[in-house]
Amino acid sequence: MTERVEVRQNVLKENDRIAMELRGELSRRRILCLNLISSPGAGKTSILEDTLKAMGARGRSVAVLTGDIQTERDAERLRRYGFPALQITTGGTCHLDASMVRRALTEVPLDGLEVLFIENVGNLVCPASYDLGEDTKVVVLSVAEGDDKPLKYPGIFRRARLMLLHKIDLLPHTRFDREAAKADARRVNPDIEVLETSCFGEPGLQQWLDWIDERVREKKNGKEGVRSRQQAAGS
Amino acid sequence: MTERVEVRQNVLKENDRIAMELRGELSRRRILCLNLISSPGAGKTSILEDTLKAMGARGRSVAVLTGDIQTERDAERLRRYGFPALQITTGGTCHLDASMVRRALTEVPLDGLEVLFIENVGNLVCPASYDLGEDTKVVVLSVAEGDDKPLKYPGIFRRARLMLLHKIDLLPHTRFDREAAKADARRVNPDIEVLETSCFGEPGLQQWLDWIDERVREKKNGKEGVRSRQQAAGS
Description:
18% strand; 235 residues; homodimer; alpha/beta
């Protein structure tokens, strides 16, 4: 098992090196990069569909890299909104890594780009360990999954700056205790921000869209870069 | 990366060796072993709570091993039903492996045991690759997760004998297409059995409980062992 641990450490070290290069490149270009992580089926792709639609209306320039084990389905769903959407098919691997992102980015026009969304493979465990050069990880927790997830999967809640409490429209049909979920997320990460979201009816995605706009503005002013470097150093 | 692939293959080979020993031991004792796999929050622990309650009423002798990355919560929930329930805390690892199960089984009284449930770590990817010596893997798919999961995570749907289409009570509140999900599951695994289940109201867990009873009977007659060995050889 020691051999295995060593190989894993070397893999992570090499990943961090590539991620640091990516972060530098994206930062120089003032491109905000958000890495969305959740369980399978928490709603990442639906959130991104509605987000791309809104970004178009707001005149933003965005692109998406979407990770999946086997299919091209998500990129097909996301391409309809007129922005570049590239599928990264991992062929069995349970997370994206920085080298996959670097390879995919050679096919994305970066000039003038404002936001790069990365939709990770649906998995609440392994993607948390892989830095992709993002400004921040965003964890999406669907209320259909149960409120015990922040303590059961603390790694991703500790590393994310923002939690989207999603499918909030399903709340009346579940036993999900939203205050308990938020309190537990803050136990593992006192700084985590929380927004309640839904792709059906109220409250919708308005707060999430405003949050992105605010981050884009910070990025252009050079503030975000400072914070993300501090986070990277401390993770 | 070749070094990494080699280490992974060695780990899986060693895992398969231990799993084969476990399968032999459980088979000699005519203990049915079911390995439940799903995304985080699909409902495995709730299903097991209701299952243990029913097994008690039916006079069955059962035990549970429940895997989690950090907390002891699931075992605490499951211990209330009067059967042995052991937590396996993986400390960051995203799946159970056969050696963890072997270690945990030293603390479970096996004499007279009829069913051993293993609740895997919530993850639709990695647990599929690890044989735990079970008779069969059972994949739980919540309708809140979306009907595209069988094609997006084919590994587990290919290896499971049974799919529980769970939280079926939420169906009216989702865009989940149950016929599409079943058809896709059968595309990756023509032999997969499907049951619709819910822990709230109709249809409940009756069919699942009957399915277990049928497997216990087969196991006692020695049929199940033959099938599971064939499956293991072909996987």
